[in-house]
Each structure stands twice: as structure tokens, then as C-alpha cells.
Amino acid sequence: MSKIWSFMIVVSIVVAFFTGYTENVITNIMESGQNAIENIFSLIAMTCFWSGIFNIFENTSAIEKFGNFFKRFIYKIFNKKELSKKSVEYMSMNISTNIIGVGNASTVNGIKAMEELQKENPIKSLPNDNITTFVLINTASLQLIPTSMIAMRALYGSKNPSEIIVPVWIVTIIALIIGLISIKILNKKM
To answer: Is residue 18 in some structural domain?
Structure first.
């Protein structure tokens, strides 16, 4: 893939040189670089803010209580026989932080949950039902407040950056339900 992108960039620069648009290419490269740096700083600020909120939740044990709520959910959709207490703990923390919208903070718990699920997996070379279900839940990324997307919309001048909340809920819930049904159907056929 890097060869394709490199080829496209070189061809674009050569074409710009021969058609007399090199000044535009250089200007666009500089503007794009500047925009990328500005976006990074804005997203870092948003991540710091939500990480601070997450730390407050951790210190007040709100995340733990929220995670305990999801343990019941985990026991209903996952194969209980192949779950350890550690994997359930990591999965509930991962799911709860994802739902709150602190995806960066949930990554560590997600990785630890996957490691625990792999330890419990009888066939190490193939993912079991629990692993595929956990990946699906993380991919669907159900969030109460999609903070990253709201921040990006605000960054680019949206008049109402939070108007996407309800559509995001609808889409992620539908994706999650269809995914869970698909996993159950496909795993029964195998």
C-alpha cells in the first residue's frame, strides 16, 4: 500500500511541475501540515479533558459501579464457562469506559481483556466465541457521548457539534444487535 501512495504522490508532484502548479502543491502541503498540527493539539486537549474526567470517575468509584452493572450484561452474552473473573473485570471496565466515550482510556483494559480471553481459549490458533463477541462490542463502539467526533465537528466549525449523538446511538445499537446475531448464527454453523 505504501508503494501505491508513494507512486501517487510522485506522479502528482511531477504532473504539477509540468503543468505549472508546483506553487499550489507546495502551498497545499504547508497548509495541510499546519491543519494536521492544529487538529492534533485540539484532540490532545480534548483527550486530556476527558482523561481528567475519567480520573475523577475512578477516584469516586463511579467507573467500578458502572463496570459492575455491565458484568450482568457480560454473563448474558458471553460463554460463562470460558470466562475468568479477571477477563470479566477487564471487559466490564473496557465496555464502561467506551460507553462513557473515553476510548483512549479503555484501550488498556481492552488489551488486558483480550490477553485473558486468549488464555482461556482452548484452541489458541482460532478465536473463540468470547473473543469474537468482545471484538464486535469494541468495534460497534456504543457511546453515550461520542466525544472524539463532537470535538472534530467543533474543530471544523459545526454550528451544533453534538447533534450527532442520537444518530450515533441508533447506528451503533443496530450494528451491535446485527453483529451479535451474526456471530451466534455463524458460530452455530461451525
So the answer is: no
- Is residue 33 domain-resident? no
Tell me the DSSP string of 5-20.
HHHHHHHHHHHHHHHT
Is 149 buried (19+), middle (13-18) or exposed (0-12) by CB count in 10 A? middle
Query: What is the tally of helices (H) and strands (E) in the chain?
Result: 8, 0
Tens digits of residue pLDDT in 124-142: 888 888 888 898 888 887 7
d(CA 109, CA 119): 15
Asked if the model's pLDDT at residue 70 lies above 80, the reply is no
- 17 domain-assigned: no
How many structural domains compose the chain? 1
| Domain encompassing residue 172 | 48-189
Size (the chain), residues: 190
Q: How many CB atoms lie within 10 A of CB 10?
A: 10
Q: Would you state the pLDDT for residue 170?
A: 92
Contact 34, 150 (CB under 8 A): no
User: What does the pLDDT look like over 32-62, one tens digit per residue?
Assistant: 888 888 878 877 877 777 667 767 766 777 7
> Does residue 175 contact residue 135 with C-beta atoms inside 8 Å?
no
Q: Is residue 15 part of a domain?
A: no
Q: Outline where 78-164 has alpha helix (H).
A: 85-100, 103-120, 129-140, 147-155
pLDDT computed for residue 75 by the predictor: 83
Instruction: Report whether 147 contacts 46 (CB < 8 A).
Output: yes
